[in-house]
Amino acid sequence: MTDAKRPGRLSTLARSTIGAKIVMATTGVILVGFLVVHMLGNLQIYLGPDTMNHYAQTLKGTPALLWGVRAVLLVGLVLHVFAAIRLKGLNTAARPQEYAVPRRYRVTSSAARFMLLSGAVVLAFIVYHLLHFTVGVTNPADFNLHEVLDVATQTWVRNDNEQLLAKLPPEMVRHDVYSMFVRGFTNPLIAGTYVVAQLLLAMHLSHAVASMLHTLGLSKGTAARERNINIGRAIAAVVVLGNLSFPIAVQAGLVHL
Amino acid sequence: MDLNAKIPDGPIEGKWDRHRFEMKLVNPANKRKYNIIVVGTGLAGASAAASLAELGYNVDCFCFQDSPRRAHSIAAQGGINAAKNYQNDGDSIYRLFYDTVKGGDFRAREANVYRLAQISVNIIDQCVAQGVPFAREYGGLLSNRSFGGAQVSRTFYARGQTGQQLLLGAYQALERQIGAGKVKMYARHEMLDLVVIDGVARGIITRDLVTGETRGWVGDAVVLATGGYGNVFYLSTNAKGSNVTATYRAYKRGAGFGNPCFTQIHPTCIPVSGDYQSKLTLMSESLRNDGRVWVPKQKGDTRRPEQIPEDERDYYLERRYPSFGNLVPRDVASRAAKAVCDEGRGVGPSKMAVYLDFADAVRRLGQNVVADRYGNLFEMYERITGEDPYKTPMRIFPAVHYTMGGLWVDYNLMSTVPGLHVLGEANFSDHGANRLGASALMQGLADGYFIIPYTIGNYLAQAKLPKITVEHPEVQRCLAGVRAQTTRLLGIKGRTTVDEFHRELGLVMWDYCGMGRTAEGLKIALQKIPEIRARFWSDVAVPGANEELNPWLEKAGRVADFLEFGELMCLDALERNESCGGHFREEYQTPDGEALRDDANYSYAAVWEYTGEGSAPRLNKEPLEFKNVKLATRSYA
Amino acid sequence: MSKTMTLTLQIWRQRSANTPGSMQTYKLEGVNEHMSFLEMLDVLNAKLTKDGQDPVAFDHDCREGICGSCSMVIDGRPHGPRKGTTACQLHMRTYKDGDTITIEPWRAKAFPVIKDLVVDRSSFDRIVAAGGFVSVNTGVTVDANATPIGKKNADEAMDYAACIGCGACVAACPNAAAMLFTGAKVGHLVKLPQGQVERRGRVLRMVEQMDHEGFGACTNHRECSEACPKEISFDAIELLNREYMRAQVTND
Ligand SMILES: Cc1cc2nc3c(=O)[nH]c(=O)nc-3n(C[C@H](O)[C@H](O)[C@H](O)COP(=O)(O)OP(=O)(O)OC[C@H]3O[C@@H](n4cnc5c(N)ncnc54)[C@H](O)[C@@H]3O)c2cc1C
Ligand code: HEM
Ligand code: SF4
Ligand code: FES
Fold it and tell me: Going by DSSP bridges, is the β-strand pair B618-623/B604-609 parallel, antiparallel, or unpaired?
């Protein structure tokens, strides 16, 4: 550079709009990646209680991994929300006076225009979902279900005797996630809440995944862009259809206790 | 009026080198003590402002658009000439020089033209270094095409947007200097007067087009690069804002106006479609490479073009000029079109158009090749006319395009007012009586990048310039004059719009001082123009106020100047009793209708001197000598 | 014979930057189908002038789609309904008798309204001044053909360089972002060998200036490239993102 100042590195990144976009996109990669894995993991519900509960037990059995992932997700989510709010603020400020006549858009979607709204619903849902299934404060009766290893038959059997559970060594007790899951979704109100939240998640993702690929500069050329838009919609569809299947399957009686 | 052109001695090839050596230099440390006013940000102005700032001068730069990037140069399509001889087809500096002098019908100054041809090669180097994306061949080297009657391929181009790309290069260089604080840019400012103190150009008066504030600026030299005055005809291919105001007001302050009647009419424009027409659109000349121009043989033939059989068509250019055919120079092609329309053989609803037909080209090359070459032009035509040129021939008609006349300058680009330098289309230029295609861009950039940075130093190093401020009484006097005119315009509150007056003037100019001129017609025009002007000053409707953005006030000021300037053009055309280049006096033609020059009596540049309100301007002459190119009759037969 | 029509025009009228504006309705008769959109406004303005009313101010100059002056949102779309067409190149044959047409200025914080349909776009100039150039002084002596440039790169550079700086991309963007414009300039220069030396600093400084001007951030709606009269590809924005990320991890 001959006659202008040399700009710094991270400071510019942190301040810039593109920096915020990059934060959105990289945290988006993490969150979407988690959603895919999370949905695939939950598909094991269809393989019966034993598989499902074994899976949950395995996760709990590797606390380093579990908490590591949770930490990354938490940081990712916080940054994502933070950047989203910041971008929204910038973008609203960038047009202090709206058009008097409604605009006619050519290609954008409602999904793209209402990202913060869908995001906010998803955030509320995440909080609820964690309280419901991870912390267990919303429906403690559904949450406090356990299985105990029957040493003779080497099978796991349901046992709700709290005194017994407290005495047994940890490797002989596991959380009955399967039952929690089924009992949770048997309540039509809860099932309905999940369905609605998933529909908004679908909306979020249908723009989000392609948007993320564009932001990361991975859609060179119109054809690649069209392809990425379709990939984005496909990922959104797969994740959400998978997730939607759970409450529906329970309500339909396909998965039961 | 002192018309010493200050042409350096010696053989023509060495003049510029020698002059560069002999010119005085300004010490690098002193350059920042000088303040230069540059008006205009077209190719000439932007390149000058940027180059001067790079050298260290402080520059105040002005344009009337909202951004320097929007200067009229942006619209040039076809290309820029340079004697690079990259195609190995026999081009050379000498050939470009020769072609330009001949193309200008021997009414340009040899030494300037030679220097232009020399510098042309540096321009391309400079532009490429700036990142101008010229067209390239698959091997990665620059591509060229032949243009407007040249028999070598020396035209560099960037699709159909050469002017845009060259201007963006200059604009970016300018913005770099603005960012560095060396140039202060004042967009949406219009120059309304030149300040001359003790015979030396020392400043300008501008109106801030947003706030209406009029103020004075002073500097050590003034550079005008304000473009051409084709809009005196109302309809032209020029941008709507192009005007004569800056140069005309400088003329009124003592700068000689050279060859005002030399205007160029471009043969391939989209014809007028109605009274509401506000401007004319050029279709690139390159279309004539493959399109064939014709009209019906029979007068008043109203059949659709497809229904007219081959043997009832007159391919008049091919018939009259067998060796150049459809590629004859602009003035020749334009006049031929006018001639057939005057015979009553014009086509289209107005009967003022000829066909440009691509049917043969499509047959010969296939639609794909034609689309590849001219697709964007065809699209543009379709957008404007609603007709598809692949199916039906285009209709074209000549339109005013460029003005070769302008403020007279010497070899150093200085006008008759010391300190006032004039660049680009605004000066009376190197194109004589007719400009070759792709040579205006070349001249604008040569002036701005490579000539003025040297010659202005020479001027400043020798000039004795007392310190002055905007409080100087002369600045204040000019300021008062400008304000008075604004007040007067706003006070008339008449019933006729500015455009109506402009259109009326344009028609008079087109009818009597357009493609064909006669002494008789010019005399009529000389009566009509003052009459329109008088009505203008008593009946013009200028809405709004001064202290706001007021496009009508701006326009009114420009039209007021056109109304005076038109008269000067007609006077010049009347005085020049010969036909040369774009100036065609119907009394002076060969039996077969070609221009008839009179070298014995008119081998000079006509330089008009303002002598005051209501008094006839005085004609001065700069004799032109041709030592290197033999005077010959142009022949394209 | 060409057709004529009667139109109802709803136009944003605002006397100056500091006065509030509003939509006003005008009836215009005798509009010829071959008129350009701006010629239609000329006719309206002549009528308003004669009626002693204030005519509508709008920016224009070349009237052939290249200077980038004209700037109006017509029926909710910058430059109107026709793809790849500036307002000055739009012709009235696009409309039919009895139509109502709404006309508004560009709206963005970085493009404040000056009057009626005229806005201040000097923010674009400042983005260019921040780095949209190659730092070469006049007088280079390297021959133009010394560095061959592959046709593909040269063509791509030209695609980006075709931007006319009109601002329709900003006007169209739900976020009033200027990334298509900025990306087009970065793209033009990065495709050429001449643009390599300042590659890193250029993008950082231009983006910094862009943000400073108060433009929004792209959220990939892709409305900009659809509205762009020069059909600058959305690739410009992806390229800008890539160049920006690259600049964060490389040195000059
Ligand atoms: C449609 C078209 C196509 C063309 N194609 C070609 C081509 O292919 N090749 C070629 O060589 N030539 C071509 N030309 C001619 C060429 O474009 C012009 O001659 C040339 O660009 C003029 O450049 P300039 O710098 O002298 O002036 P301009 O580009 O006209 O710039 C004038 C500048 O002065 C400013 N200005 C004017 N008046 C005032 C004032 N009163 N106060 C303040 N500022 C003022 C304006 O704002 C502007 O910045 C074409 C012309 C037209 C109309
Ligand atoms: C499971 C949870 C979530 C996932 C998987 C997810 C994913 C994504 C992705 C991939 C993007 C695209 C980023 C880009 O454009 O580069 C995005 C954008 C966005 N997200 Fe989320 N998100 C989630 C939750 C949230 C939450 C909780 C909020 C806010 C409250 C939110 C608000 C937004 C907003 C406003 C955008 C728009 C930015 C843009 O369009 O570029 N998201 N999201
Ligand atoms: S990118 Fe397109 S819409 Fe944006 S300023 Fe350039 S030409 Fe106009
Ligand atoms: S007026 Fe120049 S682009 Fe529309």
Answer: antiparallel
Q: Say if A256 falls within a structural domain.
A: no
Q: Measured between alpha carbons, how far is B71 from B167 in angstroms, rounded to an integer?
A: 8
Q: Provide the whole-model pTM.
A: 0.96
**Domains of chain B as residue ranges with CATH:** 266-400 (3.90.700.10), 489-623 (1.20.58.100)
Strand partners, B620: B607
Number of domain units in chain A: 1
In the reported structure, the alpha carbon of residue C233 is separated from the centroid of ligand 3 by a whole-number distance in angstroms of 10
Please give the distance, rounded to the nearest whole angstrom, from the Cα atom of residue B482 to the centre of ligand 1. 25
Residues B77-106: pLDDT tens digits? 889 999 999 999 999 999 999 999 999 999
pLDDT tens-digit readout, C93-114: 999 999 999 999 999 999 999 9
Residue A82 domain-assigned?
Answer: yes
Gyration radius of chain B's alpha carbons = 24
At A56-87, the pLDDT tens digits run 999 999 999 999 999 999 999 999 999 999 99
- Rounded-to-integer distance, Cα B129 and Cα B147, Å: 24
**Chain centroid to CA A104:** 33
Q: Measured between CB atoms, which of C15, C63, C129 is closest to B179?
A: C129
Under 8 Å between Cβ of B149 and B636: yes
Tokens 């087809």, residue?
B89
Phi-psi region of B612 (alpha: psi -120 to 50; beta: other; left: phi over 0): left
Domains present along chain C, CATH in parentheses: 4-115 (3.10.20.30), 121-249 (1.10.1060.10)
Cβ contact (<8 Å) for C216 and A7? no
Residue A147 lies in a domain: yes
Q: Residue ranges of the alpha helices (H) in B414-497?
A: 440-445, 452-462, 473-492
- Residue A116 located in a structural domain: yes
The number of residues in chain C equals 252
- Please give the Cα distance from B424 to B410 (Å, whole number): 14
- Label residues B389-424 b or e (16+ Cβ within 10 Å = b): beebbbbbbbbbbbbbbbbbbbbbbbbbbbbbbbbb
Put residue B76 in one of left, alpha, beta given phi > 0 → left and psi -120 to 50 → alpha: beta
Asked if C199 is an interface residue toward chain B (Cβ–Cβ < 8 A), one would say no
Nearest CA in chain C to A211: C220
Domain range for A116 is 11-94+112-251
Residue in B124, B226, B244, B269 to alter for ligand 1 test, most ligand atoms within 8 A of Cβ:
B226
CATH label of the domain that carries residue A196: 1.20.1300
Cα separation of B298 and B148, whole Å?
A: 29
The answer to whether B632 faces chain A, any CB pair under 8 Å, is no
Contact predicate B18/B111, CB 8 Å: no
**Number of DSSP helices (H) and strands (E) in chain C, helices first:** 8, 7
Give, in order, the Cα–Cα distances in Å from A199 to each of A204, A237, B178, B635. 9, 10, 52, 79
